[in-house]
Amino acid sequence: MSAIHHRQVVLASGNPGKLRExxxxxxxxxxxxxxQAEFDVPEVEExxxxxxxxxxxxARAAAGHCALPxxxxxxxxxxxxxxxxxxxxxxxxxxxxxxxxxARLLKELGDLPEERRTARFQCVLVYMRHPLxxxxxxxxxxxxxxxxxxxxxxNGFGYxxxxxxxxxxxxSAELPSEVKNRVSHRAKASALLxxxxxxx
Length: 200
Ligand code: IMP
Known about the structure:
The chain is an alpha/beta fold. It has a single domain, classed as Maf protein, CATH 3.90.950.10. It has helices spanning 16-26, 51-66, 98-109, 177-183, 185-199; strands spanning 7-11, 31-35, 70-79, 118-128, 137-147, 163-165, 170-171. A 7-stranded mixed β-sheet has the order 2-1-3-4-5-6-7. Strand 1 (7-11), helix 1 (16-26) and strand 2 (31-35) form a beta-alpha-beta unit. The radius of gyration is 17 Å and the shape is globular. The model is unreliable at 1-5 (pLDDT under 50). The protein binds inosinic acid. Inosinic acid (IMP) is lined by residues 13, 15, 73-77, 90-91, 101, 121, 156-160, 184, 186.
């Protein structure tokens, strides 16, 4: 068995959307992603001030609890008019779920014109071999778009229905998952991670 083929790795996230997207992306090189939900990993406080810090906190906790290498994704939406918010607070922006987060975002932007509604998804992926890994692999990528005036589409999760992708001419929730998995912030960060894993 090679270093990469059929290697089990725990994904330090309980988010089924991320597990689905990352599993499809990483499966071709034989990484079998297991959700941390299977291992009852205790919730860890994401008290970092950046995506990188929070990804490392999550990966370290999962690797320690599961005794497996761990991948963590910390991601979020940066809106220029809101000085980068919701950013690292994307998942808990409204205190409610995805629909409430989207409603708050629409409210914050009000009738701001289209050309000022620029935003991007950011994704940081971290791979740690064990909780004391002194050289975690850290990969970062972004995806440019702008915030719509109302939700469009049913695919994906989170802010996808409000995220218009000019290159594709539709919202990211209107993209088939195969397309999103090729072009998204997470897809690009995953491609970087694959490259880094292969090199190592
Ligand atoms: P995390 O689980 O702390 O990394 O929070 C990520 C949050 O950012 C998610 O709950 C979503 O609200 C948002 N987000 C990240 N990636 C995406 C995406 O691909 N589509 C839509 N929303 C996303």
